[in-house]
Amino acid sequence: QSQSDMNKVALITGASSGIGEATAVELASRGCAVVITGRNVDNLNKTAAACYEKGLKKSQVLIVQADLTIQADIERIIEKTIEQFKTLDILVNNAGIMVTGGLRNSSLEDFDTLYNTNVKPMYYITKLAEPYLTKNKGSIVNIGSISGMMPMSFVMLYAMTKASIDMFTRCIAQELAPNVRVNSVNPGVTVTDLHLRSGMGAEAYDKYLDMQQHLNPIPRAGKPEEIAKTVAFLVSDDASYITGALLPVDGGRI
Ligand code: NDP
């Protein structure tokens, strides 16, 4: 399979920034038509423009503005996808938020916010996409985190959602085999807006990024493009015997 002949339809959640944006552009560069979703339309338009630069036609990019915490929005994403492309081959469940806090400094509200954004929509959109993916022998990648694989008490609730994603991956990899391959890509600290959006101050974030050179055998934070290329590999035919895997992309941290 050459770089540009994937010729598939890929749906990427959280494609308006960071890892999701990089993944949409990477899959576009390999010839996939892309469905890009998120709440921020200006950002989605920027992702679309980057996909056109990789050679996609207007008709190969579908923008669906959607809030994944709203059930009807998830249903609309799948409806619009099938209306436009008639089919779906690849689902990248990337959208997510981080809320910092351990047991003592988190709340039930934080719990609901995290699970209602990171876990429940992933379950529901995958459920709706599954018949199309099964029909096409498609592939799913869920974006977890290394915080779901090792205890990081300062982000306890977030880490719990990410561990939950890993088990979702492993269970549905079993259930949907051999037709649909399902894997998790679990990034280490990656340079995106995630941490700043979580309320971490700019100074603390800079320090946290700086710490990565001491924590990671590859002494730096990751780049969204590095996560995107891993996702692109896992959804390609080059990964035809890989399913149920939880792959850290973390510079060797865990
Ligand atoms: P960003 O904040 O840049 O991207 C998050 C994406 O999720 C945005 O596109 C955002 O879109 C979307 N999103 C968030 N909430 C909703 C919602 N309610 N409805 C629809 N879309 C939503 O961060 P990253 O790129 O870093 O995050 C992507 C994934 O990577 C997340 O799952 C994160 O947990 C994971 N990850 C990131 C790491 C890092 O260090 N950056 C490390 C490990 C994992 P919009 O705002 O337009 O709605």
Give the topology, please:
Blueprint (H helix, E strand, L loop, with lengths): L8 E4 L5 H12 L3 E6 L2 H13 L7 E5 L5 H15 L4 E4 L14 H29 L2 E5 L12 H21 L4 E7 L6 H4 L4 H14 L8 H12 L10 E4 L5
Parallel strand pairs: 1-2, 1-4, 2-3, 4-5, 5-6, 6-7
Helix pairs in contact: 1-2, 1-8, 3-4, 4-5
The chain binds NADPH dihydro-nicotinamide-adenine-dinucleotide phosphate.
GO molecular function: oxidoreductase activity
Keywords: Oxidoreductase
InterPro entries: NAD(P)-bd_dom_sf, Sc_DH/Rdtase_CS, SDR_fam
Task: Please give a structural write-up.
- There is one protein chain.
- Strands 3-2-1-4-5-6-7 form a seven-stranded parallel β-sheet, sandwiched between helices.
- The protein has eight helices and seven strands, in the order βαβαβαβαβαβαααβ.
- Helix content is 47%, strand content 14%.
- The relative contact order is 0.14.
- It has a single domain, classed as Rossmann fold (3-Layer(aba) Sandwich).
- With 254 residues, the protein is an alpha/beta fold.
- It starts with 8 loop residues before the first strand and ends in a 5-residue tail after the last strand.
- The radius of gyration is 17 Å and the shape is globular.
- The site of NADPH dihydro-nicotinamide-adenine-dinucleotide phosphate has 29 residues, from helix 1 and helix 6.
- GO terms for molecular function: oxidoreductase activity.
- InterPro entries: NAD(P)-bd_dom_sf, Sc_DH/Rdtase_CS, SDR_fam.
